[in-house]
Every structure is written in structure tokens, then in C-alpha cells.
Amino acid sequence: MQTTLLEHAGTPPSDAALMQALRQLTAPSDDRLAMTIGVEDANGDVYRIVRTNGLCEAVRIFESARQLGFAIAGGRKAANCEVQKTLRWQGHALN
Q: Is residue 11 part of a domain?
């Protein structure tokens, strides 16, 4: 998995917990099913792009993100690329 913090964006408080959770994930690589995920701030602006190494890794990311209080939504154009899904923190307490 690769993550990219976009230049124009600051990082919301929820980003630290998300990044810690993502660092703990490992999954087999399957580039044929790789996904691009946008992480949104409270305003709905994408501030981070996550590129998975395969569908299995994407599923693990979604599971971890849900546990942290992120909602998963459909994709859109963001940061000059097409993201297939977006994550947005919903304001729940982060562990």
C-alpha cells in the first residue's frame, strides 16, 4: 500500500489513528484488483490518497476504517485522479 498526503491539505486529528491502523495491515499483492481510496477531511476535501496492492488489502482498510469511525462512500475525481472509494471520519471517538 502507498499513501500520499496532498500538498494543499492539512491533516485532521483522525489521520494519526488511521495511519497507525493502516501501518499494521498486510495483505498479498494483486495489482489487477488494486484500488485508489481518497481520505476526506470534515469539509469533504480529499487530503490523502491510499493506493492498495489488491482487493484483499482494500477490504482490510475498509474494516479498520469503519472500526475507527470512518464512513465509506463511492468514488469521485479528486487530486487529479479517480478514487474508487472515499473515507470520511464521522466524529466518533477514536481509540
A: yes
